[in-house]
Amino acid sequence: MTNLHPKIAEVTERIRERSAESRAAYLEMIRARRPDGFARGHLTEGNLAHASAGCAVIEKTQLLGAGWPNIGIITAYNDMLSAHAPFEHYPEIIREAAREVNAVAQVAGGVPAMCDGVTQGQQGMELSLFSRDVIAMASAIGLSHDVFDAALHLGVCDKIVPGLVIAALRFGWIPSIFVPAGPMPSGLPNPEKIRIRQLFAEGKVDRRALLKAEAESYHAQGTCTFYGTANSNQMLMEVMGFHLPGAAFTNPGTPLRTALTKAAAHRAAAITAQGEHYLPAGELIDERSIVNGIVGLMATGGSTNHALHIPAMAAAAGIIVTLEDFADISHVTPLLTRIYPNGPADVNHFHAAGGMGFVVRELLGAGLLNGEARGVAGPISDYSHEPFLDGDKVSWRPAPEESGDHDIIRPASDPFSSDGGLRLMTGPLGRGVSKVSAVKPDKRVLEAPAIVFESQEALKEAFEAGRLDRDFVAVVRFQGPAANGMPELHSLTPPLGVLQDRGFKVALVTDGRMSGASGKVPSAIHVSPEAARGGPLARVRDGDMIVFDAEKGTLDIKVDPSEFAARRPAEFRPNASSVGLGREMFSYFRQMSGTADTGASQFEFVAGEAKP
């Protein structure tokens, strides 16, 4: 194996040292839960009768007789989400596959799965980030029956996979495999979709033309094909080892996808505590896995949402990750892919050009991935393979040695960029992150007066009224988790993109989020402490000169520090945003949410226990 890059080794070691106490407590907790026999062995006769009552006769016989392991299925199926609609028939496929290897499979529970594409710019987006932790809790309820020897997690999209991972790690004595559905076939090319969106923002095409373009882009079952948070999730599950190799980007409804789903059920049955290859999720995932995930994120230009999700997922396993870790890994990880929004290609083009197997092999060869980290199918060094059908079963072969398209995917020796394009932004305005992989170098540094907005609607109204035709830094505050749930502000991309195309210098600074599809407009997001909790953005005023430098990672304001500190912060006034569409039910979440730079989580895991 190639020696690990010194910086990757350094970051891994400091995470290990930083996490020593919490990780030790976590491992003690999950090891104490390892069953001596089948998990259901502790049940009373009445408990066991209830657990098996709904099964087919063959499964009931084995559950009551304790002859076969029991695989729990946690599913995010609903048929409104294109990415999750294929999961409708997965339990049937999994049950049949489990029987083939003398195992039982039961749906342990379903979890909510909302679509950020439906809620972008809408009130429902204010529940999006919180849904991650709801999913984790809903998964825990399903698994709390404590009758499962392994688990299969069916999920794809933005908050769903991180929520499922948090639950899988809190039930870390159970082996877990993540089972994806794959991307929809390619539709309208991404550059054309963006062109129509910007024309609509300028009033040059009508809503009918916009709807036609959107419907041609998002047109079938499967994940949206751009490289946003959903597809970044799938990349993460692969390099962290929760997938079978090459499972991420096979299209739904194909024989290979079905074979991969069956293989996941077979593998889950093989790694239970009752066999010779016990592989509990909490020991599968360690510091090396987390660092591998961040490396994969940087090498592929993945979603900024994972600056929130990775720390939250890691914490569930007693591992403490900081934004400095992200920045240091980004600095030494080359950008190997151009997938929209970083280029015109989509994930299907990426998959055809070499896909995850090619990327993993290149990163292993460059010493950037730790190949000794474990995956559900073996060490990560084995994940440089791709699946193919051998008859009606899946086998694996080495990934292509050459990229099929150097405009989409490149070797580590000839990357698109020498770094991963994620910057830690710090200064008197707080600390956040900036994704620059899709931002042209001449747009990454600017100095301009602030225009302060307290909602995304206010910025769009100002744009439509023609008041923003100038250089400015948009400060959109009161968008953090404590204020309104930290919605994505992706709907600001078209108007800001139009202004940039008109030749104006523009940037966005916010304590909110941008989409995983954020593109060419420079932005500092997740700024913490957030304005609703008295953070510096609450003291910014219209006309203050903001210095935005994504190359150096600085976020400065040209106001005398003593004057700035003496300013009275703008007061956050909860308004209609706290009521309606169920948002009033999440007041506790807003009050108790952690800070963005630590994952904005409801959970703080200390000594193996959750503390408010």
TrEMBL record:
Cofactor dependency: [4Fe-4S] cluster
Pathway(s) the chain acts in: Carbohydrate metabolism; Entner-Doudoroff pathway
Keyword Iron-sulfur on entry: yes
Enzyme Commission identifier(s): 4.2.1.12
GO molecular function terms listed in the Swiss-Prot or TrEMBL record: 4 iron, 4 sulfur cluster binding; metal ion binding; phosphogluconate dehydratase activity
Catalytically driven reaction(s): 6-phospho-D-gluconate = 2-dehydro-3-deoxy-6-phospho-D-gluconate + H2O
Record-linked Pfam families: ILV_EDD_C, ILVD_EDD_N
Residue ranges of every copy of the Dihydroxy-acid/6-phosphogluconate dehydratase N-terminal domain listed in the record: 69-378
Enzyme class: lyase
GO biological process: D-gluconate metabolic process; Entner-Doudoroff pathway through 6-phosphogluconate
Cofactor detail note: Binds 1 [4Fe-4S] cluster.
Annotated Dihydroxy-acid/6-phosphogluconate dehydratase C-terminal domain residues: 407-600
HAMAP family: Edd
Family statement drawn from the similarity comment of this UniProt entry: Belongs to the IlvD/Edd family.
Entries under NCBIfam families matching the protein: edd (TIGR01196)
The protein, known as: Phosphogluconate dehydratase
Gene designation: edd
